[in-house]
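Slack export, channel: ligand-projects

TW: morning all. Re-posting the request from yesterday since it got buried. We need the structure predicted with the small molecule present, not the apo form. The ligand is zinc ion; the SMILES is in the block with the sequence. No rush, but it would help planning for next week.
GE: picking it up
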Amino acid sequence: MFPSKQLVKDVSRARLEKTVRSLAEIPTRHTLSGAKGADVAAAWLERELKSYGGNLQVAQQRWVQAAGGRMTKAVEIGNVLATLPGTDTPERVIVISGHYDSRVTDVLDANSPAPGANDDASGVSVVLECARLMAGMRPRCTVVFAAVTGEEQSLLGSAQLAKSLKEQGKSIIAMATYDIVGNSLSEAGKRDDKHIRVFSTSDELGELATQATRRKSLGTDGDSPARTLARAIADSARRQVKGISVTLTLRNDRYGRGGDHSAFLTAGFPASVRFTEPSEDWRHQHQNLRVEKGVTYGDLPEFVDYNYLTHVTQVAVAWLSELAQAPPAPVRVSLKQDLSAQTTLQWGPVDGAASYDVLWRRTTEFDWSGSKRFSTTQAVLPLSKDDYLFGVRAVAARGARGLPTVVGR
Ligand SMILES: [Zn+2]
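GE: finished. pasting the full token output, ligand included:
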């Protein structure tokens, strides 16, 4: 097995808790708080990421955000980024993000205490712990660990990051934001610490007309890059992490809510998904700190379930490190359009692949239900191409599985 096993074991509950509490201790991390808050958080994050050493390149990406929308004035703000350069294909990039800005009831209130422990110090703690664990790796593709700002003011930091990656000509093979991932107890008192949801859209901005025609004709609507990534994440978690599983939620986000993956989708990076806990408690999100009729409101660190957060981070480091070490998705995948009851597939060889998996599922199923491994670049399967969807992925010598290319996309 590839080295992920040890990384999963090494996830530190104590470090996750330390990150959440250190960020929540800063009175506010509101985007408009500047030197009083957000800048303090950014400096802390930069120091922390630099302390991990290894092959990480740590820097702040800073710019002056103009006034407008949820910005009442122009303010210099910044993302904190740690980049782990890829060895074989550095232009292929995986982005994992959490947002370090916080808010209270009024989104423009930059002064009231806003601990933002779950939203989203929890997500930032996942990003930092993955960076720490993977710092010594030399992955095939580049990994960007991002603590972004301005999420609550309309995804400002993630939009800036997506724009700069676009300008650098990077290909984002996967983007995942961890946002609200540390609470396991719902407002109704129901505990679920055994699942983490991954939201994925069917949308594909920038899709070509020819691609859309093919997708509609072959019924591969459910195989958008975001959903293909979500299925790969669930598969990686199933094999590597015990005690928690990934729930596929086939929509972009919760009702009326947004997240940093949407900024990447808008920028033309379609393989972008969002992680969020299954049992949300809105008394502890976006609230002024107060007690009303005996109920404590506010996003405080005492409401984070650190054992649950540890499991969520194990899922993160499992899929992230596997995908970072896996070969690229196969190209020139073709299906022989003959009038026969079997299916013949062919694909081009992939650099770094030791073998290939052909995946399949019935058109009515939402996740892959069968697979077979091949050492050649051709497969014949006793399945009707009319009734099934197929994908092909490359597998590295040590077992890391890449993202599949879906036939008919
Ligand atoms: Zn959030």
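GE: first-pass observations. Residues 99, 119-120, 151, 179-180 surround zinc ion (CB under 6 Å). Residues 283 and 294 are 12 Å apart (CA to CA).
TW: perfect, thank you
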